[in-house]
Amino acid sequence: MSDLLSTVVSAGTFEGNQELRSRSELTAKEVMREVGAVLRMSEADVALLAEVEADPGEDQTMIINMGPQHPSTHGVLRLMLELKGETVLRCKPIIGYLHTGMEKTGESLTFMQGGTNVTRMDYASPLNNELVFSMATEKLLGIDGDIPERAVWMRMLLSEMNRMSSHLLFMASNGMDIGAVSMMLYGWREREEVLRFFQKVTGLRMNHNFIRPGGVAADLPAGWRDDVLEILEMLGPRLDEYDTLMTGQPIWRERLQGVGVITRDEAIALGATGPILRSTGLAWDLRRDMPYLNYKDVDFDVVVGSYGDAFDRYAIRLAEIRESMRIVRQILDKMPGGDYRIQNKKVTPPPRARIDESMEALIHHFKIFTEGFKVPEGEVYVAIESPRGEIGCYIASDGSATPYRMHVRAPSFVNVQALPHMMRGGLVADAVAVISSVDPVLGEVDR
Amino acid sequence: MTTDVLHDCVLGQSHGQSVLFVPKDRYIATLRKLIDDSYTMCVDLTAVDFLTHPGRTLPEAIAQERFEIVVNLLSMRDRTRLRLRIQVSEADASIDSAFDLYPGTEAMEREVFDMFGITFNGHPDLTRILMPEDWDGHPLRKDYSQGRIPVQFKGSAS
């Protein structure tokens, strides 16, 4: 070990191993963090919890790696677990295997190009990433109130469809992790229908770069209404099938109920948002509590759980697909006509037809796509509710055409940090269920 | 920039959002007071390196430094957000850790340490989180070059 250390030191700066070390090398604070201690309890409270026993000595425990190439870690999440027999005592998520410096890249892309970058972060709900980036840019430009109604409703439609596809992907991966492999096929099958709709609207199944500062890239194609209705009609009965297959099934319930429990105060302290926070019974949904777009004009329920366990998180996501379907139906009724992007020459390129007849339009088009548009100096933080929780975008601008600093507050990044707490005292087999119930997207965790 | 005062700190507005400029030495004490004001959730903690953007707009009372720690707090009771901006100098690139008050900031502070090289006093495990542990430098600093991979096009003169 000391040999290894010295070679690492000579290779460059050395700032400590990113690994779960043995308890003898740690400070008390770090151990507390790794056993998932979040809140301080009074001595009296601790005494009440009679089953809490002191952790065994190091000779009785074992530290193992789970990942980064474990099939149930959703990509390249590595967990180091300290085990006593089959019981998890400590856990430390080790991330960064998918880090590609997207925030640094974002500093050299114009606000026009930035969408292509952020859309690759949470690749299971790309449209929400684009939405939050566009909203932050619009706020800096001061045009956030001038976005045409049709663009706003289109954004809502796409955001909700994306929530459906993301939660369907969760249904698939959760089923696969728990052992209901047939569920994996069903989840992917239904998600594919939604992606097909995205392909028709945006041209791509994923990484759309469709929601842009100022509106959206194109109008909805002919026949979009029928496509959406088809999906809604198909999905309703399929979700009922999921209920039959999983929700009421004793094996499924046994596997998930009481696993990975987290309380409301702990979730708030850890900053966990989305279905994790709602599973503890706190009805907090940015769509309702701090409305953006036109969410105040649609009617939907915020689904909450009561136990804060993996089953609640599963049930919440299933119910949220139904709520999204409800919202989409209302959007179908309310979709207005008109422009799909702001008619502000500063941010919107001239239409294709104008380029053929006007030299100025051609120059303008060229300038917007090569140099981008300048955004006034300032800084702004905008947050929306993505399928995984609060996704936020912090942009500091220095008045040029590229963001001076672009930071994305990724819900998965924060939610993954709640894992040590949810794992503590559970079995290794349950660890898989817990990771799955957090539904992390590693592209977003590592950015 | 119109300003106000909250807990003896300058309270500004940025595009309709409240921004509190907290001196570094009163950072933790102010957080304690803000928790009592129901800002119970720390949503985000990040930093900005203003090396190549001197003379940014700040309230008059605030002396600008190279780094700025940006903390986003959320009050679920009042449904409001508050952003803290703390100036951190290049010579003393360190600040107290908010881990004791908001355990969720543990990973975010590690990310800021990794990307900007700002140390957090009292942090339980201040190691790199996204970059490899033997990495040189802190990538999101403005004096850290982005790097390029040379592309050779087929058939072009080398």
Core attributes:
heterodimer, A: 447 residues, mainly alpha, Cytochrome-c3 Hydrogenase, chain B, three-stranded antiparallel beta sheet, 20 helices, 8 strands, 49% helix, disordered N terminus, B: 158 residues, alpha/beta, Beta Polymerase, domain 2, six-stranded mixed beta sheet, two-stranded parallel ribbon
Secondary structure layout:
The complex is a heterodimer of chains A (about 450) and B (about 160).
Chain A: H1 2-11, H2 28-34, H3 43-48, E1 62-66, E2 78-84, E3 87-94, H4 102-106, H5 114-118, H6 126-141, H7 149-178, H8 181-202, E4 211-212, E5 215-216, H9 224-247, H10 250-256, H11 264-270, H12 275-279, H13 286-289, H14 310-334, H15 352-357, H16 359-370, E6 378-386, E7 389-397, E8 405-409, H17 411-416, H18 419-423, H19 428-438, H20 442-446
Antiparallel strand pairs in A: 1-2, 2-3, 4-5, 6-7, 7-8
Helix pairs in contact in A: 6-7, 7-8, 7-14, 7-19, 8-9, 9-14, 14-19
Chain B: E1 3-6, E2 9-14, E3 17-21, H1 27-36, E4 41-49, E5 67-75, E6 80-88, E7 94-96, H2 105-116, E8 119-121
Parallel strand pairs in B: 3-6, 7-8
Antiparallel strand pairs in B: 1-2, 2-3, 4-5, 5-6
Would you mind describing this structure in some detail?
- By secondary structure, chain A is mainly alpha-helical.
- Chain A has a domain at 111-371 and 434-444: Orthogonal Bundle (Cytochrome-c3 Hydrogenase, chain B), CATH 1.10.645.
- Helix content of chain A is 49%, strand content 11%.
- Chain A is built from 20 helices and eight strands.
- In chain A, the strands form three sheets. Chain A has a three-stranded antiparallel β-sheet with strand order 1-2-3. In chain A, strands 6-7-8 form a three-stranded antiparallel β-sheet. A two-stranded antiparallel ribbon of chain A has the order 4-5.
- In chain A, helix 9 runs antiparallel to helix 14.
- In chain A, 49% of the residues are buried.
- With 158 residues, chain B is an alpha/beta fold.
- Chain B has one domain: NADH:ubiquinone oxidoreductase Nqo5 subunit (Beta Polymerase, domain 2, 2-Layer Sandwich).
- Chain B is built from two helices and eight strands.
- Chain B has helices at 27-36, 105-116; strands at residues 3-6, 9-14, 17-21, 41-49, 67-75, 80-88, 94-96, 119-121.
- Chain B has a six-stranded mixed β-sheet. In chain B, strands 7-8 form a two-stranded parallel ribbon.
- Chain B: Residues 22-146 form the NADH:ubiquinone oxidoreductase 30kDa subunit domain.
- Chain B: InterPro entries: NADH_quin_OxRdtase_su_C/D-like, NADH_UbQ_OxRdtase_30kDa_su.
- Chain B: Belongs to the complex I 30 kDa subunit family.
- Chain B: GO terms for molecular function: NADH dehydrogenase (ubiquinone) activity.
- Chain B: Pfam families: Complex1_30kDa.
- Chain A: It holds the Pfam family Complex1_49kDa.
